[in-house]
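Session log. Operator J.P. requested a structure for one protein chain; no other inputs attached. Running the standard single-chain path with token output.
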Amino acid sequence: MRILLGVSGGIAAYKAVLLLRLLREQGHAVRVVPTAAALRFVGAPTFEALSGEPVSTEVFDDVPGVQHVALGQEADLVVVAPATADLLARAAGGRADDLLTSTLLVARCPVVMAPAMHTEMWEHPATRANVETLRARGVHVVEPASGRLTGADTGAGRLPEPEDIARVALEAAAGAAGPVPRDLAGRHVVVSAGGTREPIDPVRFIGNRSSGRQGVALAAAAAARGAQVTLVAANLAADLTEPLAAAGAAVVAVASTAELRQAVRSAAERADVVVMAAAVADFRPAAPPTAKIKKVAGAAPAPIELVENPDVLAELAADRLRPGQVVVGFAAETGDDGASVLDHGRAKARRKGADLLAVNAVGENLGFVTDVNEVTVLDARGETVTSVAGSKREVADGLWDAVAKILPSM
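Structure written below.
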């Protein structure tokens, strides 16, 4: 697909680089058309190196090629990210005072704009009117995220993550843009995310590599599909949870497995679906001291006795705290000499008893620390239900598709 990536002059322009790389990795030809202001944030050589194509800002850069007409005519999709308040105003007014706005006037392909600006600018009546004008003309204007902005400010106006922009844009190009399925409307969904920490002493802990991004993507996708969402967040950064809280999700912060178990079980009493996406520690120190363990020169450290944590997923699957409740688990696995990742996943699915188990391979630079994921979804017998690969939001939507098929009628 031939994609034009418009970039306007906001601090979020650095995310356009990540979006460019993501689109290129998916096999699309991408030509970057920045504004002059955008190049004050990210230089032309960066865009040229990653796209493999020249970068222009003015209609006079290639007069014989008539770029301001040709680019829009040849494009299969135009994405503008970030779209500043100024760019939205110029596009809504039909201005053609640089290459990007001229191209927008010519383009007859799907156009997706992802605004980014301070909250006051986004909420100003002039900006809202410009957005409505563009939408009325068929432009797909993505709602900005809420979260940390420039400086210490927090609120609506944050540029959505590159994988989310790419997903919406490619759906628009495929003709799939439109209302998100509301198949979770009226449902209460509980999602755990992140990684638990078991204290060794007041300073140290046993933990894992989970960033919590897959769980957050699951919560965000459920909210978009109409669900009331409770996110049990195990040691997650505020910039991950704040957008969900701003969108109306209940966020319960926890640290240890015991805290997560209590929070999930409490919320699950009112839930139609419980998704255990958090990486929960299997063991914890039996008796962590109240003072920091000191290192003694020349002496070996004292052994740490571990005890087994409760199996939160297996408990939920066995107890079903609400009639008709659907329980979903995640199995982060590595293969070994005796069995593959999927072999271990099938055994775990039969042992845990959850309705669905999403199995994914993890390890160094795999699963936990990337923006993409790949899961095989199994039923309680260990049989394959579906496989989903892509961005973590795409994986989340694929998993919710599978859940929606087995949810009892309301």
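Operator note: The first strand starts at residue 2 and ends at 7.
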